[in-house]
Amino acid sequence: MITVPSAAPGWSRVIVAVAIVAALAALAVAHLSTGEPMVAPGQLTGILMGESGDRIDQLVVRELRVPRLILALFSGAALGLSGAILQFVLRNPLASPELLGVSAGASLAMAAILLLNAPVLFALHPVVALAGGLGGGLIVLAASRGARTPVEAALIGVAVAALLQGVILAMISLAASSGAVQLYFLYTVGNLSNRTWDHVRLVWPWVIAGIPAAFLLARGANVLQLHEDVASSLGLQARRMRLVFIALAALLVGSIVAVAGPIAWVGLLTPHIARLIVRGPDARILFPAATVIGALLLLASDVLSKVVLYPREIPVGLCTTLLAAPMILLLLRRSNLGLNR
Amino acid sequence: MTSARSFAALTLLAGVAAAALFILHLGLGTVWIPPDRVILALADRSTDPTDLSIVRELRLPRAILGLLVGCMLGLSGALLQVVMRNRLAEPGLTGVSTGGILAAVLFLAGTWGLPPPGRFLPFVVLLGALAGGILVLFASSTRGRIDPLRLVLTAVIVNAIFGSLTSIVMLRSQQALGSILSWLIGSLNGRVWDDVWLALPWAAVGIPAGLLAARPANVLQLDDESGRALGLPLQPARIALFGLAAVLAAGAVSVAGAIAFVGLMAPNAARAIVGADARRVLPLSALIGCVLLLAADLVAQSLSIKPPIPSSSYRVGLPVGAVLAVFGAPLLIILIRRSIR
Amino acid sequence: MNDVEPLRLAQVSAGYGQRMVLDGLDMGLRQGTITAIVGPNGSGKSTVIRAMARLLPTRSGVVLLDGRDIRSFGSRGIARLVSVLPQSPSSPPGLTVRELVELGRFPHTGLFGRVGVEGARAVESALTLTGLSDFAERPLDELSGGERQRAWIALALAQGAGTLLLDEPTTFLDVRHQFEVLDLIASLCASRGMTVVMVLHDLVHAANYAGRVVVMDSGRIVADGAPSTVLTAELMRTVFGVAAKIFTNPESGRSICLPIGTGRS
Questions:
Q1: Which of A20, A27, A60, A316 is 20 to 30 A from residue A297's alpha carbon, by CA?
Q2: CA-CA distance, A146 to B28, in Å (whole number)?
Q3: pTM for the whole structure
Q4: What is the ipTM of this complex?
């Protein structure tokens, strides 16, 4: 069982909220300062306003780092929220985009249009990724129908993801020209390097629409946590509602995969951290909490990705794995992730 | 049905299949050499000097490695399944292979610029393999018991961590995609005689030892009470067999990388054909491992020679591990579904 | 009290996939009564409950809710009239009793509405009636089986429906908690005029608490009426395949059905 801190009094919630906001701000400053060239945090405001710093600094910070910061926040928020959504509506604490074939399916779709030179408009990339993500997710849901334990369903997702990744690898190793290493990491672990305002423009409508939609429907997620017959007898169209939520999660993940690849383990870990901080399984609180914590986790990973092999950057997906996967192992051992309810 | 005679017939059949694939494998390449000419060249009776040099110098090492690696992985998987009493166990799903490759790339990065470490590499891989396997066993045991599916889930997460660390080490030394995939996914592309000499001693020791372990393996398959009653010191036997499985995996991983699914498919196929008796399962697993790896490498090679997708002149070459993932993942799903029933 | 039956099945057939479970069932409920459905395993008891609440669509025949075809209702419309408690429902870890009971207001709030004063009052009264006011802030998974079952009944009460369908509400409870839960149901029926249908395995409970016992076998009703007329040694032999003795409880005047063996020895 997860040990939920007993009814957190008001002030301790305030402290947690302040700490999270402070951490986000500190990480954002670190994110904008680090990389090649390094920028002193004190100069950032001036550079952002276009008042100080040389032209290179201004260009790097305003045209590369700010959009990347926004993308990191978007990615973490979308992944954390979609993990929470999936865990709620599938009633499986292991449900997450990476363990349900959603990320891998979206990634395969993106790799396919790029490597096969399919004539798809840039603006439609998130749609293609969404279709791929839904395809991967539906394969896993179909293959795990009647699965008796959450672990069984998750492992079927792992197997499907391995298959899809095998196809991605085949395409990259057979068709990629120069920059094959970058493509490999982009489509198998996820990368945020060299992103520009174009990428922000591509995903913001999806993220900005998807997140509030999930918050608004949170009460439905609360009911879906109960037995399917109970949910239906309370007047919720359980099956339809579940599909709406899965589509919403796939939409959030798809738009992120389209620009950053299948960044893993944030979606699985974030809801569990949120549950440690927020008391009780109320989606109206947990969804926003997972959104914020996901953003925090991914921002931290992205800062890490810029300093591990400084001055070179490494793919952010490697860092989310190094940060989140050990914590998942730890939670799995200590509290069993709430698997044996 | 599984009488001694039908077992002999099956072994013969698998042996013939392996031999036929071996000849086919030697014939395949940018220049196709028909089987009769391959056999002449192998017997050193060919009058065509190009046939001789292509078959004996260029293609023979890769084909021999296919045989050895398939054999070692099949046997290693069969032993791990006995030791862990888990039909899903195999080097790639227990942290053994990924622990091995992480140790290998760390070792290679550490000795950069020094004389080639050659023969020591498999020993280092063995240490990593043991550490990886033990870590997964430790992390997945709850109150001294290990749930089979939990073990695989833990291994998947540990594999992700090891894979990320491996990637970072390789990014640091700016490796090409071909060599990254060679370790992470497993490949036989571009293998030469030196690789054969590296793996051969490990195969020469590991394979006979593994086959001789059939009797204790049979006892270990029983429950602990009966095993003890038969007078086998269980814990030492289990450790010895685990070590043997790690030795076999280390030999294979040192030359071919973290190839997954062979060690899963071969023993399960063998058991489906001849039942549970390790005296039959172990040799048949080894043979089926050869057949699978050679067949998968034939697919990898023929796709690499004539890619089905339009491609540039620069190509990495399809790693055999990707082919095995595509064929092995569906089997993994079937086994997961069955393990519950 | 009006004369319209709160719920009626008319010639209802229903099933799963190829398999038909209910075969032309006719059954009406009188307001404010307790009906027990009994029968051997696989006789279609749970399926009746699911068909009554449209959790399972009928293949033929109609279900009438307040005299209207149930198919003409919206999902939340049904939920305001009928609440269902399935067999051993599971809850997410950490959910408190109050949070569970508040979910019972979903038919009234929908996805976006507010619980409101009336809703809050319904939640409080459900907690009071089930004796859970003191447990309201406790997580469900920390409660005993009997308390948990009462919490689920409180959820159904907060729903404010006049008809309550329960599928084996006493399974997995020890005998004291069984009586507690059944007493609670009986008192709700008496004080609030609720109409109750419950699937029961225990024939002693059925005879004790229900005014009417419906016996099912292979998707049909084989006996229907007051417990004393329905539960006979003959019926026990033909439907359940057991020999039984029937006594009358001198205190309550109700009959007690005591199975004594397979009747083969």
A1: A60
A2: 44
A3: 0.90
A4: 0.93
